[in-house]
Specification:
- There is one protein chain.
- The chain is an alpha+beta fold.
- It has a single domain, classed as Double Stranded RNA Binding Domain.
- It contains 1 helix and 3 strands; from the N terminus they run E-E-E-H.
- A 3-stranded antiparallel β-sheet has the order 1-2-3, with helices on one face.
- Strand 1 and strand 2 form a beta hairpin.
- The longest helix is centred in the middle third of the chain and has 18 residues.
- The radius of gyration is 15 Å and the shape is flat.
Length: 70
């Protein structure tokens, strides 16, 4: 099953990793560690709450101008 990992910088350092399909969230000091933790957390979630494979996720980005940018 192919799922999505969204990573952002954590305020305290390292990275926060989020999987939007399941809602699982975790963190790690490096990108690799954060993704490894997310894989583990998501596998545990799916062992309790199975979901059907729905194909490849589709990711896109968009820009919102803040009032200071306008």
């Amino acid at each position: 099953m192919e799922l999505t990992a969204v990573l952002t910088h954590a305020e305290e350092g390292g990275f926060v990793a989020f999987n939007p399909e399941t809602g699982t969230t975790t963190q790690g000091e490096t990108v690799e560690e954060a993704v490894a933790h997310l894989k583990e957390a998501t596998a545990l979630y799916l062992s309790e709450f199975p979901m059907p494979a729905t194909g490849h996720p589709f990711i896109t980005m968009f820009t919102v101008l803040a009032s200071a940018d306008a």
